[in-house]
Amino acid sequence: MERTITADTQLTSHEVGKMLQSNPSSINKWVKEGRIAAFRTPGGHRRMFAKDVVAFLKAHTMPIPHELHGIKVVEAVEEKLTEPKSEPQPTPKKPKKKPKKKKAGARR
Q1: If 0-12 CB within 10 Å is exposed, 13-18 middle and 19+ buried, where does residue 30 land?
Q2: For 49-90, how does the pLDDT look when each residue is reduced to its tens digit (9 = 90+)?
C-alpha cells in the first residue's frame, strides 16, 4: 500500500533519495548547503517537508517524481531557495608578534 504524500508530509533523506534516484548522502549534502530546507528530529534525523523538496526541484528545473505531483509550492519559499548562498568572508589574519629581545645579563 502506497502512502499519500501531501505538502506537509515529512520525508527522510532516504525517501527523498529514492524518489529522486539519488544517494541519501547527496540529499544530506544539499541540506547542509541550504539548497533543501530541512529540520532535525530530537534523535538527530533529518526531515524535509514534501513542499520544500518540490520547491528545490522546481528551482533547479529537475523533474518532479509522480509521488510529488500535485503538491503546490508557496512562491516565497521557492524564491528563498533559489537565492545564491553568500560566500563566507575570510577571517582576517592577526599580525605576528615579534619576540621580545632579552637584555644581556638578565636572569629569570
Answers
A1: buried
A2: 999 999 999 999 999 998 888 887 765 444 455 555 556 666
**Residues 6+ positions from 33 with CB-CB distance below 8 Å:** 85
C-alpha atoms less than 13 angstroms from C-alpha of 94 in its C-beta half-sphere: 3
On whether the CB atoms of residues 72 and 58 are closer than 8 A, the answer is no
By CB atoms closer than 10 A (0-12, 13-18, 19+), residue 12 is middle
Give 68's contacts (C-beta < 8 A, 6+ positions apart).
5, 19, 50, 53, 54, 57
The grid coordinates listed for 29 are 549534502
pLDDT in tens, 80-99: 555 555 566 666 666 667 77
Report d(CA 76, CA 66) in Å as an integer: 24
Q: Which domains does the chain have, with CATH numbers?
A: 10-82 (1.10.1660.10)
